[in-house]
Each structure stands twice: as structure tokens, then as C-alpha cells.
Amino acid sequence: MKLIVQVLDACDLMPKDGKGSSNPFVEVEFDGQRHRTQTKLKDLNPFWNETFTFNVLDPSDLPNKTIDVLSVAQRYPLDKRGIFSNISGDISLRIYSVPASSDPPPQPPAAQPPPPTPAEKSQETIAPEKPKKEEKEQKEVRSTYSIGTSFVDPRTTISRAEQARTEPVTVMRSNLGGGPPRIVGSEYGLTETYPPLAARVGYTGDKITSTYDLVEQMRFLYVNVVKARDLPAMDITGSLDPYVEIKLGNYKGITKYLEKNQNPTWNQTFAFSRERLQANLLDVVVKDKDTVKDDFVGRVVFDISEVPVRVPPDSPLAPQWYRLEDKKGEKLSKGEVMLAVWMGTQADEAFQDAWHSDAHSIGVEGLVATRSKVYFSPRLCYLRIHVIEAQDLVLSDKTRAPILYVRVQLGNQLRRTRPSPPARLINPVWDEEMMLVASEPFDELLIITVEDQIGPGKDEPLGRLVVPVLIAQQRFDHHKQVEPKWYNLHNPNSSTVDEKKETKFSSKIHLRLTLDAGYHVLDESTHYSSDFQPSSKQLRKRSIGILELGILSARNLAPMKAKSGRLTDAYCVAKYGQKWVRTRTILDTLHPRWNEQYTWEVHDICTVLSVGVFDNCQISGHNKDDNTPTKDQRIGKIRIRLSTLETDRIYTHYYPLLVLQPSGLKKTGELHLAMHYVQPIPVMTLDYLRHQAMQIVAARLLRAEPPLRRETVEYMLDVDLHMWSLRRGKANFYRATSVLSGLLAVGKWFDDIRSWRNPVTTVLMHVLFLILVCFPELILPTVFLYLFMIGMWNYRFRPRKPPHMDTKLSHAETAHPDELDEEFDTFPTSRPGDIVRMRYDRMRSVAGRLQTVAGDLATQGERLQGILSWRDPRATAIVVMFSAVLAFILYVTPFQVVAVIAGLYLLRHPKFRTKMPSAPFNFFKRLPSKSDMLL
């Protein structure tokens, strides 16, 4: 067997001759055999394209062999020569093996381009070429190995400039067995990766690294179709319905067509991924829309190799007028189109609103649902309505005692007071406060109605007040009360009030309306909240840092549209604080690459970033069966608590996307991320208000373009977290058990000391105990020294990865299918009666055990309280007399003596103990409790 090594080229080498240049060559060594390329004089971007052949003595041992590539100036890195090496650059190789009977195949013509210029080198991509198919008679098998310093998805290609962003070294050793990449992880755990990100390796070759340094650079061919003028008439009417078709290989982008317009304006941008370019020519064709067949008007052809490169913050490329050509390439007498064509990156301003080749199968109408956008939640504020009293109400029936209450409505939020005391008929008093959630700009109408309940389910309105939320006074300090005001109640049949019309008489209501701007309105669960800032902008703290998130890619996603013959149309949503971000949708793939970067200001380190992955189902628009809007399907979600991240450390991990379904736990793929690091409200009220805040946020984001759909917002905000789940109950129980395990471990350790299981340890504890008793000032220093030593010991085992959802802690892997079916059941339930009865009995059994535990705790507490309450006169008398005697003894006895006697008594040898319970324990167990009084 022979091993073939093709040394192609290198780029961005470091000058070594002191004059800004270098004379590089490459030396390849394998199994004692050595070859060397030609020396390229004064060239930092050399091109060799030389092929070397090595003899493989033992083919079975080839996977254990390594190949060393040495570049005198610098070469593509793997193994470091020294810790002070500061060499930079990369080298491109292709390595494969062939049978010994075969000669090295000649280099295909396509793989022998002329030496590229440095500008072209920065744009090239290197992909391992598939060897040509040999004839069946030869049955040759060729193994291709890819050289790299980091894990690279085999379905993608990486540019040499991106590969160069690695730790500088001098000798590259490649495992010819194609061993595992630098990737560490498990099925449900995090997988750490080492992609060539600019923020990690300090690569400063492009301006994009200043703002997009946590993602891999992606190049796009942008085509901006602005307008056309003086187009020739194609219809009998003397006009045409023009549109533009941009063709690049198999990809085709089409603008909207404009009826009867010879000077149309489109202003549409198209983006073609550089990695998927299938042709060298870009064809821009102007056509006339027709019923049978669209007519050809003219075209403009661009050579992609001559397209200029633009990287922000360079100014946008100015569009130019181009004369249309016919199919033979000859200029037309009339007709021009204004275009701008350039090669850019995802940092380009046109990236967000461009038509992407990843969405080439979607028309212009569905394109808006695939774009990346940034959303902001509306500013929310708690609205307090303190209903005090009313005066001069006019009752329709004065012969009966009215049942008066006040109903408050704001949007879809509805609250009402309790009935007024019957003693106050026409001047009722409620003195009750309610809280609602209002959103900026606070122009929504607040409707307050005084009603009389004249029968079951029948209410009669007596007066109504309709005012905007803006009239409520903002309060920043809860210690300062807002003065209440009297408001006129108007005819309940009218929804608006004419302020200019004077009323001689009207009923009145006494209200205190307050916008509590000092609170933060929770729209997330308090456990996973990403923001604790108050509603008032004046009270908010300054930011303490910046969170940078790079959404790189995903792999092995579940095929969500397998039934329709497609794969998955995936997009990501990230939420932190009031800022929501949504990536573009990558169509029909299980391995999408987004490479989009976003930043947030951090005001509180104890907050959580949430990232969810969804399948876009809005491209088709509606279900075929009932014509109802389709819902985006959830693929998975991750949460990252910022306090667990180290400052100025770049985290690059694959996060498993886990979804709990009625059928059990399912891994739906992996998401690749890069990160850089007063007065309480009652809990029940807070849960209700959180639900209302979530409804407001969902309704507001649904009005954006493209809309962030309700199912997406609900999934990101964990709206169903409060629902009963036996699985979650078990998880919380074992969490509590784990927290108490430390105390149990200390108790077991002390019991082992008392039992003299290890006499040496027990004797040492006796000595330590006597020292601390004789020198009590050493107690606190010893305790804190012990805590310090424990903390330093645990430093070795500190977590090196951001925390992620733990399937074992959540009991997701061991959950019974019936428990999952109950967890995913609707509210109210939609299951048959026998299943509901079985689940109810199970819940009663679980609640019975909890009730027993709560009763035991209450019993022990009541016995402790009953010692001196004379509930048991004899027991209390004994305790009182014993306390008096013990107080006298302790007054006359030094504390050290008492402590030594008590400690030695506790630590006495088991031979001096009896297995019978002690007298104080028996005495305490026989004390009465209130359990005797329960029915």
C-alpha cells in the first residue's frame, strides 16, 4: 500500500527574514521516509501543488501511524514546538492511501488552478474532493483523511482563513486512522468543541472580527436589483409586466413582477451562499410575465471571479446601470437595469432582509417568515386599582337589599371586588385593592363598572367609568401613597365619556389608581428569569457587562416534516431581558448553519439566557384540512445561568436538545453555541400577573413582521410550569433529599465517632474537643478554616462546562409513560373517566404520604411548644423543677467543666451505653400534641 500526500498551498505565513517576507518550503515525514517541496522565494502565500508517495510497510498498522509536516517558515498547526512559539499561518493538504499495485493517480485538472492571489485566497474554500469512480474491474478503495485542529462537520467546508485561526504551532501530526476529533461529551451531556473563532484565537485578518468574532465567517454573493428603465415593449398593448430572475447554477431568485411598467423599481436583495456556488457565471435576466410563457427581455452576465469584495464597515456598494444583452451577448438598443453585485459576509447590512439561497424554494410571499429579526418586549407595569367607596348610587329596585361590587376590566384582564357590606346601600364601601398588568404606551382603556347582582348569573350595571391607563399616577417608592380621587360614574350603556358635557348629577366612585414603576413585571418563571430590572427606566441600574452569543449551527436534528417528504426548516429564538432574537430559517436540512451573533447588556449576573430551536411551519401558511394557521413545532430548548460562567472565557459547546414527550425523553439534535461572558408581592397574585404579562407579550410580538408566534413565546417563557407533574414532584423531592444529604452525612460521621468504629479518629476528636473547650476563642477560626479547606479541595472538581438540563435530575429517563401522559394532558382533562379516576387515586396516595410527613413535623413542633404550656401539668412541672436545679448548677459550675462532662458523656464508649432509648427521649415522645384534637 502507498500513502499519497498532496501539498497544495499555504496562506498568511509569518515573515522570517526581517524584511516582511519569507522563503517557505514544506517537509513531510512518514515512517522514516522524508520528502521536501520546492522553496518559494519571498512568498507569504506560496502555492506548491506537489504530490509525494510513501511506502506503507504494514497497512494494518496505518491507523496508529502519524505523519509529520514541517514548514520552515510556518505551517498548519497541531502539535506545538514550544510554549513561546509565535508563528502563524496554515497549510492545505490532501492525504489518502492507495493499493501498492496502483500508481499514484494524476492530479485532476480541476484541482490544478493557477496560483491564486492573496485576495482570492481569503475567499477560497477547501473541500476534500471525491476521487473519480474507477472501473469495476479494479475495485479500488481509497480512504481520504481530513487534517484539522478542531471538529468540523463533515457536511460542511471550511475556508483556509478560518482554519488558520488556531493556536500557532510548528509541527502538524495527523492521525491517519481518522481518530475522533477534539470533542468531549456524552449523549445527554454537553460536548465541548474548538471551532476556529476569532475571539478565541485572536485572528485579526478581517474587520468582521470586531463584531462577529464568536461565529465562523460565512461568505455570500449579494445581488441588489434596484430598478430598470426604458424596457422594450413586449405586449400588444405596448407595455410589459417585468420581473427579474437571478440564476446561479441550480439556484434561482425571482423578484415580484409589476404590471404595465417599463420603468419598474424593485429594491430587492438576493444572497447566495459562497459554499454552495454551483457556477462561475451569475445570470441576471429580465423577463415579461405572461399567461402561457414568460418572454425574454434581456440579461446581464457577471463573472463571479471579478465580483468585488466588501466587508463592513466599508460603505455599501453603489449600484450601477447595465445595458441589457440578448441571448447571443449583443447589447440591446434600449433597456437598462440598475444592479449592485458584491461578495460579503453575514455582517453585511443587506444580510437581514435578503432573499437567501437557503430558502430558494420559497416565493416572495413566504420569504418574510424565514428572516432573522430582533424583537423587544413591551415595557410592562403593574397597575394598582384601590377601590375605596361609592356615593349616590341609583338602584333600580329599592325594595330589596342590593349586592354591590365593582368589576375592573383592562383588555382581556377581568377582576372584581367582593360584595359591599349590606349595611351600606347607596354608599357602599369596599376598600379593596386589585392589580393588573399594563403595557406601554398605556393608552389602553380601563373600564370600571359598579354592578348589582340581582340574581344568580344576572348583574345590573349601575354606573361605568372609562378612562385611559395614562391617568394613573406613576409611583417609584412604595412608601409614598398616591392620593385617591373621586370620579363620576356615567351611564353604563355608553362606552365613551364626553368631557365637555356638564352633568348636574352623577354617582361617584372613590379610587386610587397607581402605576407601580418600581417593580419588575415577571413574564417568566422566577427560577429562570432573565431580567429583574424595575419598570421605571430611571430606577434601572447601569449594566455590569455584555453577554455575547454566537448561534453557530445544529446537527442531527429530528426530521420534523418527514411525512411530507421534507426534513426540517429550523430557526432559533434566544431570549434575555426584554430582547428577543430570531435567526433566519434554514430550509430542508438536519444540519443548519446560522453563524449569527447577538449581544445583550447584563444588569444582574443571577439571570438566565434561554435559547430554543423550532421548526418553521409558516412557509406553507395553513393546514390543508381545516385551513387553520399551522403552529411551529418545538425541537428543544436550553437554559444557561450567567452566574455559572467565568468572565472573559469563551464557551463553545454542543448542547443536546431534549424534549419530553408523552412517549418519553427524546433527543432531537444538538445546538452549537459560542458565549463570551423591594416590597414583595404575594405568590398567588404574582402567578396570576405573570400569566397576564405573558399574554400581553405574546400578543405584542405576534404583531411583528415576521411574527413571533404564541406557541414559541409560551415555550420560551415556560407557561405550563405550574401544572401538576408527578415526574417533577419526584425530582423536587429528591432535590430536597440531596440538599439534606450533607446534614445526614455529618450525622452519620458523628455517629461513627460515638460508636468508636475507628478508635484513632475518635481519640483525635476527643483531643480536638478538649482543645476547643479549653480555648473557646479557637472555635470560630477552626470552623472557617475547615470551610476554606473544603472549598479548596472541591476546586479540583469544579464544573468546567455551563450547566445544562439534567435528564437524571429531572427523572425524564425513568418516567412512566402514564405519568408523561398525565403531564401532557390538557387542562381541564381530556382523558376518559376511568383513567382520570386512577390518576386521582394515585394523587391521593401521594398526598396522603405528604400529609403524614407534614403531620409528623407538626407533632414534633407542638410537643416542643407544649413543654412549658402546662398542657400536661405533670410534664411541665418536672421540666420547670429540672430547669431550676440545672440553672443553679450551671451558675456555680464553670462552663468548661459542663462542656467537658457533656462532650465525654456523648462520646463515651458503646460498652457504657444501653440499647434502650434514653429517658429524655422517652419523656419527649410522651408529651401531648394537637393531633389528639383532629377529627
UniProtKB/TrEMBL annotation:
<feature type="region of interest" description="Disordered">
    <location>
        <begin position="97"/>
        <end position="143"/>
    </location>
</feature>
<feature type="transmembrane region" description="Helical">
    <location>
        <begin position="763"/>
        <end position="793"/>
    </location>
</feature>
<feature type="domain" description="C2">
    <location>
        <begin position="370"/>
        <end position="487"/>
    </location>
</feature>
<dbReference type="InterPro" id="IPR000008">
    <property type="entry name" value="C2_dom"/>
</dbReference>
<protein>
    <recommendedName>
        <fullName>C2 domain-containing protein</fullName>
    </recommendedName>
</protein>
<feature type="compositionally biased region" description="Basic and acidic residues">
    <location>
        <begin position="121"/>
        <end position="142"/>
    </location>
</feature>
<dbReference type="InterPro" id="IPR035892">
    <property type="entry name" value="C2_domain_sf"/>
</dbReference>
<dbReference type="InterPro" id="IPR013583">
    <property type="entry name" value="MCTP_C"/>
</dbReference>
<dbReference type="InterPro" id="IPR047259">
    <property type="entry name" value="QUIRKY-like"/>
</dbReference>
<dbReference type="GO" id="GO:0016020">
    <property type="term" value="C:membrane"/>
</dbReference>
<keyword id="KW-1133">Transmembrane helix</keyword>
<comment type="similarity">
    <text>Belongs to the MCTP family.</text>
</comment>
<dbReference type="InterPro" id="IPR047255">
    <property type="entry name" value="C2D_MCTP_PRT_plant"/>
</dbReference>
<feature type="domain" description="C2">
    <location>
        <begin position="202"/>
        <end position="322"/>
    </location>
</feature>
<dbReference type="Pfam" id="PF00168">
    <property type="entry name" value="C2"/>
</dbReference>
<dbReference type="InterPro" id="IPR047257">
    <property type="entry name" value="C2B_MCTP_PRT_plant"/>
</dbReference>
<feature type="compositionally biased region" description="Pro residues">
    <location>
        <begin position="102"/>
        <end position="118"/>
    </location>
</feature>
<keyword id="KW-0472">Membrane</keyword>
<keyword id="KW-0812">Transmembrane</keyword>
<keyword id="KW-0677">Repeat</keyword>
<feature type="domain" description="C2">
    <location>
        <begin position="528"/>
        <end position="655"/>
    </location>
</feature>
<feature type="transmembrane region" description="Helical">
    <location>
        <begin position="878"/>
        <end position="907"/>
    </location>
</feature>
<dbReference type="InterPro" id="IPR047258">
    <property type="entry name" value="C2C_MCTP_PRT_plant"/>
</dbReference>
<feature type="domain" description="C2">
    <location>
        <begin position="1"/>
        <end position="109"/>
    </location>
</feature>
<dbReference type="Pfam" id="PF08372">
    <property type="entry name" value="PRT_C"/>
</dbReference>
